[in-house]
Design goal:
This protein is an alpha+beta fold. It has two domains: 166 residues, no CATH class; 91 residues. It is 58% helix and 8% strand. It is built from twelve helices and four strands. A four-stranded antiparallel beta sheet has the order 1-2-3-4. A hairpin with a 5-residue loop joins strand 2 and strand 3. It is globular, with a radius of gyration of 21 Å. The mean pLDDT is 91. It comes from Streptomyces bingchenggensis (strain BCW-1). Belongs to the UPF0162 family. This is Protein SirB1 N-terminal domain-containing protein.
Length: 279
């Protein structure tokens, strides 16, 4: 018997979770993972949340100030359980899926940071995510006052603001001031994870299905770049759904026409060309 398509229900749940007053970062990451891994069921989601709870229970009680919290998490997650990353992790989709990162203890900087954030938050730490260009780290303490930055990708190595600036300079290729961005919200973190998945799939032409679901989940977030609608339209056309892709292009053209009339007309031409491929 063919498997029932539960995609609409999954998408509704993701959209509802994203619109909660206090979005559950771990749940949103696991709902993203469900799109990639059809074997991840409700029991699997519960198991991942339980593992985060278990790890949090192993954090020493009230370690002290920001530095002590960072050291406690590094000792537990970095040293004892060996959560960290390597260059090879950038080549694997599993590195962007929270349940796989918990299983393998390997992942991209942002997913390793999600593990740290969720474990530290459950343990009562003053913790937040820091979305540096090209890298993601965590902070402990007051982001606008006394704080300590740690790099989960490097096992929890403590970073000064100057170290963070060097990471940014390396990513951008230009010198950067020793300033750290404001804390990233859960929805900003989820959008960045989806952006990573889109970029990973875009480099693999045979995986337009992965790129498409990453775009479609991004569009379900309360705030997202409008251009994602155009990206979705192009993917639909590329996958042979010319009518839906053309319609999406035309709707996007209407959105941007007032500010970018030339761009809107170019999109309309692409929509007409997509419809013409039906003949």
């Amino acid at each position: 018997m063919p498997r029932r398509d539960d995609t609409p229900a999954r998408r509704r749940r993701f959209a509802e979770a994203a619109r909660e007053e206090r979005p559950d970062l771990a749940l949103l990451c696991l709902l993203v993972a469900q799109e990639a891994d059809p074997e991840l069921d409700e029991d699997g989601i519960d198991a991942a949340q339980i593992e985060l709870d278990r790890l949090a229970g192993l954090v020493p009680y009230s370690p002290g100030g920001p530095g002590a919290w960072a050291a406690a998490l590094a000792g537990l997650l970095g040293d004892r359980f060996d959560f960290r990353g390597s260059a090879a992790d950038y080549r694997r989709l599993e590195s962007s899926l929270l349940h796989e990162v918990l299983r393998r203890r390997r992942g991209l900087p942002i997913l390793l940071s999600v593990v740290w954030l969720e474990v530290a938050r459950r343990a009562g730490a003053p913790v937040y995510g820091v979305a540096l260009p090209g890298h993601f780290v965590v902070g402990f303490g007051d982001p606008y006052g006394h704080h300590v930055l740690a790099d989960p990708f490097d096992g929890g190595r403590v970073l000064s603001d100057e170290d963070a600036a060097l990471l940014v300079a390396g990513a951008l290729g230009v010198p950067s001031a020793a300033t750290v961005p404001a804390p990233a919200t859960p929805l900003e973190i989820v959008l960045r994870i989806l952006n990573n998945i889109r970029a990973w799939a875009a480099a693999r032409p045979e995986l337009t299905d992965v790129q498409l679901w990453a775009v479609e989940l991004s569009l379900l977030l309360p705030s997202h770049p409008a251009r994602l609608r155009y990206e979705r339209a192009k993917l639909l056309v590329e996958r042979g759904d010319f009518v839906a892709g053309a319609k999406e292009m035309e709707e996007y053209a209407e959105v941007v026409a007032a500010m970018e009339p030339n761009a809107a007309e170019a999109v309309r031409r692409r929509a007409r060309a997509a419809r013409a491929r039906l003949n």
